[in-house]
């Protein structure tokens, strides 16, 4: 199945805090080569990614990205009802940006393949600069069309359709202070659960006192999120930044995310970053660690991502930037490294690998490490 949203978020958020708000300009010509790794909770994910951007005229820029996830999973969800597995996800994406004075139009397409999941998405975005490029308004729409399959069952094939709407406002409030406000809405329809995930229910005839059955989710979901991000630049070549984000959906999940960070430039070529992030969420309305009986409700889930939990992240980043002379084909290059350590604590998801006292096992917790390293070349 598709890689967890958490890991995708961590990889996507690797870039350092920007030192200015980007006006409506074309992206710089650059090549990025990245390696990413996630290890925790019995799951290992790693792989490379290559991104290339190139201007083809003063008004047009194109990009292409190739991304690989190699997954090896022996997580608690897998060990409870199945055997460890390995799989690979390959993703390809292309994009084009059009600049017309202070307006930037962007189009994008991506597709990914796994042995049991195919995904396609299309994106349209527009950004407009105002007030001498001190303000930027951005609107975007993305549509996803996925096919969910199941290994060992050639007859299983379900569709998922998604629509994502986003609006953001970026503002330079003073020479030292910037902020961004974002709102997002996502609608989903189709087969929204994992065909391999099961819920457990009390069963006096079973040796452990409970049995498992395939989860049942609603076929529609609407979620909304709002985020405020701010940066304040200090006179010592440093910056403080923070983020507050709130999320809610029609399944009863409510979540909040708080992040605080500090970036420091050193010796002209180095940038060091430290950040702390705390995330908490409530459980879905149809989630329980153990149900009283099979088919007790119309919808039933025990996926730990649907439960109540919180996580705390401590992260470090480092970047070394080297600038070449004007006669060089490469203008500049950077080497980047990032490490995040995450502690997950679940409030109502129990460790079923403990076989004594069913339904009263210890609540589950685990730690994970996320590593990302990449080289960027500007040309």
Features:
16-stranded antiparallel beta barrel; 2 helices; globular
Please, could you describe this protein's structure?
The protein is 4% helix and 64% strand. The protein has 379 residues and is mainly beta. It has a 16-stranded antiparallel beta barrel. A hairpin with a 3-residue loop joins strand 5 and strand 6. The N terminus is likely disordered.
Amount of helix: under 10%
Number of strands: 18
Order of helices and strands: HEEEHEEEEEEEEEEEEEEE
Q: Briefly note the structural class of the backbone.
A: mainly beta
Short description:
The protein has 379 residues and is mainly beta.
Write the layout of secondary structure elements.
Blueprint: H1 5-12, E1 30-40, E2 43-55, E3 60-73, H2 76-81, E4 85-100, E5 103-113, E6 117-130, E7 135-150, E8 153-172, E9 177-190, E10 198-202, E11 210-214, E12 220-234, E13 238-249, E14 254-266, E15 270-281, E16 309-323, E17 332-350, E18 363-378
Antiparallel strand pairs: 1-2, 1-18, 2-3, 3-4, 4-5, 5-6, 6-7, 7-8, 8-9, 9-12, 10-11, 12-13, 13-14, 14-15, 15-16, 16-17, 17-18
